[in-house]
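User: Assemble these into one structure.

Assistant: Restating your components, then the assembled model:
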Amino acid sequence: MSNTDDQGPIWEVFLQSKPGLAHKHVGNLHASDKEMALQNARDLYTRRKEGTCIWVVPFDAIVSSTPEDDEAFFEPSNDKAYRTPTHYVLPEGAKHI
Amino acid sequence: MEDAKKLEEFQAKIDAEIKIEPKDWMPEDYRKHLQRQMSQHAHSEIIGMQPEGNWLLRAPSLRSKVVLLAKIQDEAGHGLYLYSAAETLGKSRTEYLDELKTGKAKYSSIFNYPTLTWADMGAVGWLVDGAAIVNQVSLQRTSYGPYARGMVKICKEESFHQRQGYEIMADMAKGSPEQKEMAQDALNRFWWPSIMMFGPHDSDSPNTGNAVKWKIKRATNDQLRQSFIDKTVHQAEIIGLTIPDPDLKWNENRGSYDFGEMDWDEFWTVVKGGGPCSKQRLKHYNDAHNNGEWVRKAAKAYAEKQNSKQKVA
Protein backbone atom coordinates (compact mmCIF):
# COMPACT_ATOMS: atom_id res chain seq x y z
CA MET A 1 0.00 0.00 0.00
CA SER A 2 1.93 3.02 -1.18
CA ASN A 3 1.05 6.58 -0.30
CA THR A 4 -0.10 7.29 -3.84
CA ASP A 5 -2.97 4.82 -3.37
CA ASP A 6 -4.40 7.22 -0.83
CA GLN A 7 -8.15 7.55 -1.41
CA GLY A 8 -8.44 10.66 0.78
CA PRO A 9 -10.51 10.98 3.95
CA ILE A 10 -14.16 9.88 4.26
CA TRP A 11 -16.95 12.46 3.99
CA GLU A 12 -20.50 11.67 5.07
CA VAL A 13 -23.17 12.89 2.68
CA PHE A 14 -26.56 14.37 3.65
CA LEU A 15 -29.21 15.22 1.12
CA GLN A 16 -32.30 17.41 1.26
CA SER A 17 -34.72 15.84 -1.19
CA LYS A 18 -36.91 18.95 -1.54
CA PRO A 19 -37.28 22.37 0.07
CA GLY A 20 -38.92 22.11 3.47
CA LEU A 21 -37.53 18.70 4.37
CA ALA A 22 -34.63 17.89 6.68
CA HIS A 23 -31.31 16.72 5.25
CA LYS A 24 -31.02 12.94 5.43
CA HIS A 25 -27.89 10.78 5.53
CA VAL A 26 -27.46 8.93 2.24
CA GLY A 27 -23.95 7.48 2.43
CA ASN A 28 -20.36 8.56 2.19
CA LEU A 29 -17.42 8.94 -0.17
CA HIS A 30 -13.70 9.60 -0.27
CA ALA A 31 -12.29 12.96 -1.39
CA SER A 32 -9.14 14.89 -0.69
CA ASP A 33 -10.79 18.29 -0.05
CA LYS A 34 -14.21 19.79 0.57
CA GLU A 35 -14.88 20.97 -3.00
CA MET A 36 -14.07 17.55 -4.39
CA ALA A 37 -16.26 16.01 -1.71
CA LEU A 38 -19.20 18.18 -2.76
CA GLN A 39 -18.73 17.52 -6.46
CA ASN A 40 -18.31 13.79 -5.96
CA ALA A 41 -21.42 13.77 -3.79
CA ARG A 42 -23.31 15.41 -6.61
CA ASP A 43 -22.11 12.77 -9.10
CA LEU A 44 -22.56 9.84 -6.76
CA TYR A 45 -25.80 10.61 -4.93
CA THR A 46 -27.86 12.88 -7.20
CA ARG A 47 -27.85 11.27 -10.65
CA ARG A 48 -31.67 11.24 -10.70
CA LYS A 49 -32.92 14.53 -9.30
CA GLU A 50 -32.73 13.16 -5.76
CA GLY A 51 -32.09 16.45 -4.07
CA THR A 52 -32.08 20.19 -3.79
CA CYS A 53 -29.19 20.60 -1.32
CA ILE A 54 -26.15 18.55 -0.33
CA TRP A 55 -24.11 18.66 2.87
CA VAL A 56 -20.74 16.93 3.13
CA VAL A 57 -19.23 16.46 6.60
CA PRO A 58 -15.79 15.04 7.42
CA PHE A 59 -16.33 11.65 9.03
CA ASP A 60 -13.97 12.59 11.88
CA ALA A 61 -16.24 15.50 12.82
CA ILE A 62 -19.12 13.18 13.69
CA VAL A 63 -19.42 12.02 17.28
CA SER A 64 -21.56 8.93 17.67
CA SER A 65 -22.96 7.13 20.67
CA THR A 66 -22.07 3.45 20.86
CA PRO A 67 -24.18 0.36 21.60
CA GLU A 68 -22.60 0.34 25.11
CA ASP A 69 -24.25 3.72 25.73
CA ASP A 70 -27.69 2.38 24.84
CA GLU A 71 -28.79 1.65 28.39
CA ALA A 72 -27.73 4.97 29.85
CA PHE A 73 -28.90 6.99 26.87
CA PHE A 74 -32.15 5.51 25.76
CA GLU A 75 -33.65 3.34 28.49
CA PRO A 76 -34.67 6.16 30.87
CA SER A 77 -37.36 7.16 28.39
CA ASN A 78 -38.97 3.71 28.58
CA ASP A 79 -40.76 4.54 31.87
CA LYS A 80 -41.75 8.06 30.89
CA ALA A 81 -44.89 7.33 28.97
CA TYR A 82 -46.33 10.58 30.37
CA ARG A 83 -44.27 12.33 27.68
CA THR A 84 -46.65 11.02 25.04
CA PRO A 85 -50.23 12.22 24.54
CA THR A 86 -51.77 8.74 24.70
CA HIS A 87 -50.85 8.59 28.42
CA TYR A 88 -53.69 10.95 29.36
CA VAL A 89 -57.27 9.98 30.11
CA LEU A 90 -59.80 12.28 28.51
CA PRO A 91 -63.45 12.68 29.52
CA GLU A 92 -65.87 10.93 27.23
CA GLY A 93 -66.80 13.04 24.22
CA ALA A 94 -63.93 15.57 24.46
CA LYS A 95 -62.91 16.70 20.96
CA HIS A 96 -60.10 18.61 19.23
CA ILE A 97 -57.55 17.87 21.99
CA MET B 1 -17.99 -17.68 27.87
CA GLU B 2 -18.70 -14.01 27.27
CA ASP B 3 -18.67 -14.78 23.56
CA ALA B 4 -21.26 -17.54 23.88
CA LYS B 5 -23.60 -15.08 25.57
CA LYS B 6 -22.90 -12.42 22.95
CA LEU B 7 -23.42 -14.93 20.18
CA GLU B 8 -26.79 -15.87 21.65
CA GLU B 9 -27.85 -12.22 21.84
CA PHE B 10 -26.62 -11.68 18.31
CA GLN B 11 -28.64 -14.62 16.97
CA ALA B 12 -31.71 -13.42 18.89
CA LYS B 13 -31.46 -10.05 17.15
CA ILE B 14 -31.10 -11.73 13.76
CA ASP B 15 -34.11 -13.95 14.47
CA ALA B 16 -36.14 -10.89 15.47
CA GLU B 17 -35.21 -9.21 12.16
CA ILE B 18 -33.28 -6.44 13.94
CA LYS B 19 -30.52 -5.18 11.64
CA ILE B 20 -26.90 -5.37 12.70
CA GLU B 21 -25.13 -2.00 12.57
CA PRO B 22 -21.37 -1.28 12.28
CA LYS B 23 -20.71 -0.66 15.98
CA ASP B 24 -22.68 -3.69 17.18
CA TRP B 25 -20.91 -6.83 18.35
CA MET B 26 -20.77 -9.48 15.63
CA PRO B 27 -19.08 -12.88 15.31
CA GLU B 28 -15.75 -12.71 13.52
CA ASP B 29 -17.03 -15.12 10.84
CA TYR B 30 -20.01 -12.88 10.16
CA ARG B 31 -17.69 -9.91 9.67
CA LYS B 32 -15.34 -11.93 7.43
CA HIS B 33 -18.19 -13.35 5.37
CA LEU B 34 -19.59 -9.87 4.77
CA GLN B 35 -16.20 -8.36 3.98
CA ARG B 36 -15.71 -11.03 1.34
CA GLN B 37 -19.21 -10.97 -0.11
CA MET B 38 -19.63 -7.18 -0.15
CA SER B 39 -16.21 -6.49 -1.62
CA GLN B 40 -16.72 -9.15 -4.31
CA HIS B 41 -20.01 -7.48 -5.06
CA ALA B 42 -18.31 -4.05 -5.28
CA HIS B 43 -15.48 -5.40 -7.46
CA SER B 44 -18.08 -6.92 -9.80
CA GLU B 45 -19.74 -3.56 -10.32
CA ILE B 46 -16.38 -1.95 -11.08
CA ILE B 47 -15.04 -4.67 -13.42
CA GLY B 48 -18.53 -4.93 -14.95
CA MET B 49 -18.00 -1.53 -16.57
CA GLN B 50 -15.39 -3.00 -18.92
CA PRO B 51 -17.44 -5.33 -21.13
CA GLU B 52 -19.93 -2.50 -21.65
CA GLY B 53 -17.27 0.17 -22.14
CA ASN B 54 -16.12 -1.96 -25.06
CA TRP B 55 -19.22 -0.87 -27.03
CA LEU B 56 -19.52 2.73 -25.92
CA LEU B 57 -17.76 4.20 -28.95
CA ARG B 58 -19.57 1.85 -31.33
CA ALA B 59 -23.12 2.23 -30.06
CA PRO B 60 -25.46 2.26 -33.09
CA SER B 61 -27.29 5.49 -32.19
CA LEU B 62 -26.94 8.55 -30.01
CA ARG B 63 -29.83 7.32 -27.87
CA SER B 64 -28.24 3.95 -27.24
CA LYS B 65 -24.96 5.68 -26.47
CA VAL B 66 -26.32 8.03 -23.78
CA VAL B 67 -28.24 5.14 -22.25
CA LEU B 68 -25.17 2.91 -22.14
CA LEU B 69 -23.13 5.75 -20.70
CA ALA B 70 -25.71 6.31 -17.95
CA LYS B 71 -25.74 2.61 -17.19
CA ILE B 72 -21.96 2.41 -16.90
CA GLN B 73 -21.96 5.47 -14.67
CA ASP B 74 -24.51 3.73 -12.44
CA GLU B 75 -22.27 0.66 -12.18
CA ALA B 76 -19.41 2.87 -10.97
CA GLY B 77 -21.78 4.44 -8.44
CA HIS B 78 -22.96 1.04 -7.24
CA GLY B 79 -19.39 -0.10 -6.77
CA LEU B 80 -18.75 2.98 -4.64
CA TYR B 81 -21.90 2.49 -2.50
CA LEU B 82 -20.77 -1.06 -1.83
CA TYR B 83 -17.17 -0.12 -0.98
CA SER B 84 -18.56 2.48 1.45
CA ALA B 85 -20.78 -0.11 3.09
CA ALA B 86 -17.94 -2.66 3.21
CA GLU B 87 -15.63 -0.12 4.87
CA THR B 88 -17.96 0.04 7.88
CA LEU B 89 -16.71 -3.47 8.68
CA GLY B 90 -13.37 -2.05 9.75
CA LYS B 91 -11.36 -2.55 6.59
CA SER B 92 -10.18 0.37 4.46
CA ARG B 93 -11.03 1.17 0.84
CA THR B 94 -7.35 0.87 -0.03
CA GLU B 95 -7.16 -2.65 1.42
CA TYR B 96 -10.18 -3.79 -0.57
CA LEU B 97 -8.84 -2.25 -3.79
CA ASP B 98 -5.47 -3.83 -3.16
CA GLU B 99 -7.09 -7.27 -3.03
CA LEU B 100 -8.73 -6.62 -6.39
CA LYS B 101 -5.54 -5.30 -7.99
CA THR B 102 -3.47 -8.29 -6.91
CA GLY B 103 -6.14 -10.79 -7.95
CA LYS B 104 -6.59 -11.98 -4.36
CA ALA B 105 -10.25 -10.98 -4.36
CA LYS B 106 -12.77 -12.40 -6.80
CA TYR B 107 -15.48 -10.68 -8.78
CA SER B 108 -18.39 -12.16 -10.70
CA SER B 109 -17.05 -14.58 -13.34
CA ILE B 110 -19.55 -13.38 -15.90
CA PHE B 111 -17.39 -10.34 -16.62
CA ASN B 112 -14.56 -12.55 -17.81
CA TYR B 113 -16.53 -13.33 -20.96
CA PRO B 114 -16.04 -11.11 -24.02
CA THR B 115 -18.75 -8.89 -25.51
CA LEU B 116 -18.37 -9.65 -29.23
CA THR B 117 -21.33 -7.90 -30.84
CA TRP B 118 -23.80 -5.10 -30.08
CA ALA B 119 -26.38 -7.79 -29.27
CA ASP B 120 -24.16 -8.70 -26.32
CA MET B 121 -25.08 -5.34 -24.77
CA GLY B 122 -28.63 -6.58 -24.96
CA ALA B 123 -27.81 -9.96 -23.44
CA VAL B 124 -25.73 -8.41 -20.66
CA GLY B 125 -28.47 -5.97 -19.65
CA TRP B 126 -31.29 -8.48 -19.94
CA LEU B 127 -29.63 -11.57 -18.47
CA VAL B 128 -26.61 -10.45 -16.44
CA ASP B 129 -28.33 -7.45 -14.87
CA GLY B 130 -31.52 -9.49 -14.66
CA ALA B 131 -29.75 -12.20 -12.64
CA ALA B 132 -28.00 -9.57 -10.51
CA ILE B 133 -31.34 -7.90 -9.76
CA VAL B 134 -32.92 -11.16 -8.57
CA ASN B 135 -30.00 -11.55 -6.18
CA GLN B 136 -30.02 -7.93 -5.07
CA VAL B 137 -33.76 -7.74 -4.47
CA SER B 138 -33.32 -10.63 -2.07
CA LEU B 139 -30.33 -8.90 -0.42
CA GLN B 140 -32.42 -5.81 0.38
CA ARG B 141 -33.48 -7.84 3.42
CA THR B 142 -29.96 -8.90 4.42
CA SER B 143 -29.21 -8.61 8.14
CA TYR B 144 -26.36 -6.10 7.92
CA GLY B 145 -27.83 -2.57 7.90
CA PRO B 146 -25.36 -0.77 5.62
CA TYR B 147 -25.48 -3.60 3.06
CA ALA B 148 -29.29 -3.65 3.08
CA ARG B 149 -29.48 0.13 2.64
CA GLY B 150 -27.03 -0.02 -0.26
CA MET B 151 -29.09 -2.74 -1.92
CA VAL B 152 -32.28 -0.70 -1.67
CA LYS B 153 -30.61 2.19 -3.45
CA ILE B 154 -29.02 -0.05 -6.08
CA CYS B 155 -32.25 -1.90 -6.85
CA LYS B 156 -34.09 1.37 -7.35
CA GLU B 157 -31.50 2.52 -9.86
CA GLU B 158 -30.98 -0.78 -11.64
CA SER B 159 -34.52 -1.33 -12.75
CA PHE B 160 -33.79 0.49 -16.00
CA HIS B 161 -30.67 -1.58 -16.74
CA GLN B 162 -32.49 -4.79 -17.46
CA ARG B 163 -35.11 -3.02 -19.56
CA GLN B 164 -32.53 -1.32 -21.76
CA GLY B 165 -30.92 -4.72 -22.44
CA TYR B 166 -34.23 -6.38 -23.17
CA GLU B 167 -35.16 -3.53 -25.51
CA ILE B 168 -31.95 -4.07 -27.50
CA MET B 169 -32.70 -7.81 -27.77
CA ALA B 170 -36.33 -7.20 -28.75
CA ASP B 171 -35.32 -4.66 -31.41
CA MET B 172 -32.72 -6.99 -32.92
CA ALA B 173 -35.01 -10.00 -32.77
CA LYS B 174 -37.54 -8.20 -34.94
CA GLY B 175 -34.88 -6.78 -37.29
CA SER B 176 -33.23 -8.40 -40.33
CA PRO B 177 -32.52 -12.18 -40.27
CA GLU B 178 -28.85 -11.35 -39.59
CA GLN B 179 -29.80 -9.15 -36.63
CA LYS B 180 -32.09 -11.81 -35.22
CA GLU B 181 -29.32 -14.36 -35.58
CA MET B 182 -26.97 -12.03 -33.76
CA ALA B 183 -29.45 -11.69 -30.89
CA GLN B 184 -29.91 -15.48 -30.70
CA ASP B 185 -26.14 -15.96 -30.73
CA ALA B 186 -25.75 -13.52 -27.82
CA LEU B 187 -28.44 -15.40 -25.88
CA ASN B 188 -26.72 -18.70 -26.64
CA ARG B 189 -23.39 -17.48 -25.29
CA PHE B 190 -24.70 -15.62 -22.21
CA TRP B 191 -27.46 -17.97 -21.02
CA TRP B 192 -25.39 -20.56 -19.19
CA PRO B 193 -22.84 -18.18 -17.66
CA SER B 194 -25.79 -16.03 -16.48
CA ILE B 195 -27.57 -18.81 -14.63
CA MET B 196 -24.23 -19.87 -13.14
CA MET B 197 -23.90 -16.36 -11.65
CA PHE B 198 -25.99 -17.62 -8.72
CA GLY B 199 -23.11 -19.91 -7.78
CA PRO B 200 -22.85 -23.67 -7.18
CA HIS B 201 -25.82 -25.85 -6.22
CA ASP B 202 -26.81 -25.55 -2.56
CA SER B 203 -25.50 -29.07 -1.99
CA ASP B 204 -22.02 -27.93 -3.17
CA SER B 205 -22.00 -24.54 -1.50
CA PRO B 206 -20.11 -24.71 1.80
CA ASN B 207 -20.80 -21.08 2.81
CA THR B 208 -24.56 -21.31 2.66
CA GLY B 209 -25.19 -22.69 6.19
CA ASN B 210 -24.07 -19.77 8.36
CA ALA B 211 -24.98 -17.21 5.72
CA VAL B 212 -28.60 -18.33 5.84
CA LYS B 213 -28.65 -18.73 9.64
CA TRP B 214 -27.28 -15.21 10.01
CA LYS B 215 -29.63 -13.94 7.30
CA ILE B 216 -26.80 -12.53 5.21
CA LYS B 217 -28.40 -14.53 2.41
CA ARG B 218 -32.19 -14.54 2.38
CA ALA B 219 -32.51 -17.20 -0.31
CA THR B 220 -30.19 -19.99 -1.48
CA ASN B 221 -28.34 -20.11 -4.81
CA ASP B 222 -30.74 -22.67 -6.26
CA GLN B 223 -33.85 -20.76 -5.15
CA LEU B 224 -32.59 -17.54 -6.73
CA ARG B 225 -31.57 -19.32 -9.94
CA GLN B 226 -35.00 -20.93 -10.25
CA SER B 227 -36.74 -17.62 -9.72
CA PHE B 228 -34.63 -16.00 -12.46
CA ILE B 229 -35.27 -18.81 -14.95
CA ASP B 230 -39.02 -18.78 -14.26
CA LYS B 231 -39.14 -15.04 -14.97
CA THR B 232 -36.96 -15.11 -18.06
CA VAL B 233 -38.35 -17.96 -20.18
CA HIS B 234 -41.51 -16.07 -21.08
CA GLN B 235 -39.51 -12.94 -21.91
CA ALA B 236 -37.51 -14.94 -24.45
CA GLU B 237 -40.67 -16.43 -25.94
CA ILE B 238 -42.41 -13.14 -26.61
CA ILE B 239 -39.46 -11.76 -28.56
CA GLY B 240 -39.14 -15.00 -30.51
CA LEU B 241 -35.76 -16.16 -29.19
CA THR B 242 -34.94 -19.67 -27.97
CA ILE B 243 -33.21 -20.41 -24.68
CA PRO B 244 -30.38 -22.82 -25.55
CA ASP B 245 -31.40 -25.60 -23.18
CA PRO B 246 -33.08 -28.71 -24.68
CA ASP B 247 -34.05 -29.87 -21.16
CA LEU B 248 -35.97 -26.69 -20.36
CA LYS B 249 -39.56 -27.75 -19.63
CA TRP B 250 -42.47 -26.47 -17.54
CA ASN B 251 -43.08 -28.66 -14.53
CA GLU B 252 -46.73 -28.48 -13.55
CA ASN B 253 -46.18 -30.07 -10.14
CA ARG B 254 -43.46 -27.70 -9.04
CA GLY B 255 -44.97 -24.68 -10.78
CA SER B 256 -41.48 -23.98 -12.13
CA TYR B 257 -39.28 -24.80 -15.08
CA ASP B 258 -37.01 -27.84 -15.06
CA PHE B 259 -33.70 -27.14 -16.73
CA GLY B 260 -30.50 -28.83 -17.82
CA GLU B 261 -27.27 -29.23 -15.85
CA MET B 262 -24.71 -26.45 -15.99
CA ASP B 263 -21.09 -26.95 -16.97
CA TRP B 264 -19.44 -26.69 -13.57
CA ASP B 265 -15.97 -27.45 -14.95
CA GLU B 266 -16.23 -24.30 -17.01
CA PHE B 267 -17.57 -22.41 -13.99
CA TRP B 268 -14.61 -23.35 -11.78
CA THR B 269 -12.09 -22.72 -14.56
CA VAL B 270 -13.40 -19.17 -14.93
CA VAL B 271 -13.63 -18.61 -11.16
CA LYS B 272 -9.98 -19.62 -10.87
CA GLY B 273 -8.94 -17.00 -13.40
CA GLY B 274 -9.04 -19.07 -16.59
CA GLY B 275 -11.86 -17.11 -18.26
CA PRO B 276 -11.43 -15.79 -21.81
CA CYS B 277 -10.89 -12.20 -20.57
CA SER B 278 -9.68 -12.70 -16.98
CA LYS B 279 -6.17 -11.39 -17.56
CA GLN B 280 -7.32 -8.52 -19.75
CA ARG B 281 -9.89 -7.29 -17.21
CA LEU B 282 -7.40 -7.21 -14.36
CA LYS B 283 -4.67 -5.62 -16.44
CA HIS B 284 -7.04 -2.93 -17.65
CA TYR B 285 -8.12 -2.20 -14.10
CA ASN B 286 -4.53 -1.93 -12.91
CA ASP B 287 -3.53 0.27 -15.85
CA ALA B 288 -6.43 2.64 -15.17
CA HIS B 289 -5.51 2.77 -11.49
CA ASN B 290 -1.83 3.43 -12.21
CA ASN B 291 -2.61 6.03 -14.87
CA GLY B 292 -4.66 7.89 -12.28
CA GLU B 293 -1.75 8.21 -9.92
CA TRP B 294 -0.93 11.79 -10.95
CA VAL B 295 -4.54 12.78 -10.26
CA ARG B 296 -4.42 11.38 -6.74
CA LYS B 297 -1.08 13.07 -6.16
CA ALA B 298 -2.32 16.43 -7.45
CA ALA B 299 -5.52 16.22 -5.41
CA LYS B 300 -3.55 15.44 -2.28
CA ALA B 301 -1.06 18.25 -2.88
CA TYR B 302 -3.93 20.69 -3.47
CA ALA B 303 -5.67 19.62 -0.25
CA GLU B 304 -2.45 20.03 1.75
CA LYS B 305 -1.90 23.50 0.30
CA GLN B 306 -5.46 24.54 1.16
CA ASN B 307 -5.04 23.23 4.70
CA SER B 308 -1.80 25.11 5.31
CA LYS B 309 -3.35 28.32 3.90
CA GLN B 310 -6.22 27.94 6.31
CA LYS B 311 -3.84 27.56 9.23
CA VAL B 312 -1.97 30.77 8.33
CA ALA B 313 -5.23 32.73 7.94
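Strands of chain A lie at 10-16, 24-30, 53-58.
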